[in-house]
UniProtKB/TrEMBL annotation:
Keywords: Repeat, WD repeat
Annotated signal peptide: none
Protein name: mRNA export factor
WD repeats: 93-135
InterPro entries, A to Z: WD40/YVTN_repeat-like_dom_sf (IPR015943), WD40_repeat_CS (IPR019775), WD40_repeat_dom_sf (IPR036322), WD40_rpt (IPR001680)
Keyword Nucleotidyltransferase: no
């Protein structure tokens, strides 16, 4: 398998979030536990470093503005930031009482931002109305993962509660369930908005449809398992064109899957460390993934000098197109 490591100013610690712009510019951003947020311009398997911002503590999440001219950032200092790339400025616009785990900007109104925190709240912000949220939604547990593809928002918290919101009709939760899996790691909406994929520390993924008439299509499967060893599913990314998806895990592997045929399309070579995050670019021609420690073995594992890298892979059609 041919892949390329980003050598131009790569992260020096594990990557906590990884996102392409949804525009043809192919800008890629990574937040890292080295306290930096970095941006690269990607041309196929070539990466050119654009810039970085340092924070007082680790950033955990980021979201591109719809026009790709700004980046919204949250992290362990409890602050939400706007990094204006054109003005080369950064400012805080909101705050939680605990770290911000997820942040998203609305696609058509770039003044509207939502944040999800370990303080058990989701806050909605309007950048035109100062530093007070316009709405606060309370959950039972800490926000562990969120995904938004307007108008839908899905959230999984530390109590294994899964919440679905239709933001087009307000801030009310339209569906609430509880997962039978162990601790959540990631939740990701289908590109067609019919449902979501949910991954956990027990190496499984659940495919769940939102509409009652499609519930018979729900299923779950084991993915990051090796004989009697179980590895966490750290991230899930859907291909924007085909609706197939990638999973990455603590076993140092990434897989491509088709949910319609319930089949595995590709298995990567093993890397010598966990894969923490992944992302497809706007047309699915580039797949980026981050190799680094994810603390699945606690402090003992953190002392090992293993690979930390940010990589690019160009998927072949047969590897990612539904069978």
């Amino acid at each position: 398998m041919e892949f390329t490591k980003i050598e131009d100013n790569p992260p020096l610690d594990s990557v906590s979030s990884l996102h392409f712009t949804q525009k043809p510019e192919n800008l890629l951003t990574a937040t890292s536990w080295d306290n930096f947020v970095r941006i690269w311009s990607i041309d196929k398997d070539k990466a050119k470093f654009i810039g970085k911002q340092e924070f007082s503590s680790a950033p955990l999440c980021s979201s591109w503005s719809y026009d790709s001219k700004a980046l919204f950032i949250g992290g362990t200092d409890n602050q939400a930031y706007l990094w204006n790339l054109e003005k080369e400025s950064i400012e805080s616009f909101g705050e939680h009482s605990q770290p911000i785990k997820e942040i998203f900007s609305f696609p058509e109104n770039q003044n509207l931002i939502l944040t999800g925190s370990w303080d058990k709240t989701i806050k909605f912000w309007d950048l035109r109305q100062g530093q007070n949220p316009i709405n606060t939604t309370f959950l039972e547990g800490k926000v562990f993962s969120m995904d938004m593809r307007f108008p839908y928002l899905v959230v999984v918290d530390s109590t294994k509660g899964i919440y679905a919101f239709d933001l087009g009709s307000g801030y009310n939760c339209v569906q609430r369930t509880r997962s039978s899996f162990k601790q959540a790691r990631v939740i990701s909406l289908f590109p067609d908005l019919k449902g979501y994929a949910f991954g956990s520390i027990d190496g499984r993924v659940s495919i769940t449809y939102l509409k009652e008439e499609e519930k018979d299509n729900n299923f779950s499967f084991r993915c990051h398992w090796k004989e009697n060893e179980i590895f966490a599913v750290n991230d899930i990314a859907f291909h924007p064109k085909y609706g197939t998806f990638a999973t990455v895990g603590s076993d140092g592997l990434f897989y491509f899957w088709c949910k319609e045929t319930k089949s595995k399309l590709k298995k990567s070579i093993p890397f010598e460390n966990s894969i923490t995050r992944c992302s497809f670019n706007h047309d699915g021609s580039i797949f980026s993934f981050a190799v680094g420690y994810d603390w699945h073995k606690g402090f003992i594992g953190s002392t090992a000098k293993k690979e930390r890298s940010l990589c690019l892979y160009l998927p072949k059609e047969k590897e990612i197109q539904a069978k």
